[in-house]
Specification:
Blueprint (H helix, E strand, L loop, with lengths): L8 E6 L4 E4 L5 E2 L4 E4 L6 E2 L8 E4 L3 E11 L6 E8 L6 E7 L6 E11 L4 E8 L5 E4 L8 E9 L1 E2 L4 E2 L1
Antiparallel strand pairs: 1-4, 1-13, 2-12, 3-11, 5-6, 6-11, 7-10, 7-12, 7-13, 8-9, 8-11, 14-15
């Protein structure tokens, strides 16, 4: 028992500044500014210069994905977030909240996905206020962020290695 389980690994990316001008009713990928590794063995990767909205999968397995995005105060409309895989229109995990006139509106998304090498994930943000709105970079809450944890890496016993 457990011979197919390899140590879990993970990555977290986040943004340190507000992302401004999200157009109403237009899904927008969050552009991350830096990476925080939870573990040393890479199962996912991120680049600040090439597609900084993407976390790319470098080991096949089952992944727990957790994302957060907070919005600058505005009294109208809904704020939504979801995880998108491989740039498709598919929605993985979804959170929608009616915005608050005061305080911060935060979306949190959690989903478990089976992923292959070369696939990538993005945190998508969407709002319908009727005007452009901004994502709030809340340093204390580490939002916006996308965390990707590998819960189970696929292992081929006949090869004696991960595949």
């Amino acid at each position: 028992m457990g011979e197919n389980l390899v140590n879990a690994r993970g990555i977290k990316v986040r943004r340190d500044t507000d992302q401004t001008g999200l157009v109403t009713a237009t899904p927008t990928a969050v552009i991350f500014s830096h990476r925080v590794d939870f573990f040393v063995n890479n199962v996912a990767d991120w680049s600040s210069s090439v597609n900084p909205s993407r976390v790319a999968i470098s080991a096949p397995g089952v992944y727990l994905c957790v994302a957060n995005v907070s919005w600058v105060n505005a009294a109208t409309g809904n704020r939504q977030a979801y995880i998108r895989k491989n740039g498709t229109t598919g929605v993985y995990g979804f959170d929608s909240r009616l915005t608050q006139a005061t305080g911060v509106t935060t979306n949190t998304v959690t989903v478990v996905l089976s992923l292959k090498v070369g696939e990538y994930l993005e945190l998508m943000a969407l709002q319908d206020a009727g005007a452009n709105r901004d994502i709030d970079a809340v340093t204390a809450d580490e939002t916006p962020s996308l965390s990707v944890f590998c819960l189970h890496r696929y292992y081929d016993a006949s090869l004696g290695q991960e595949v």
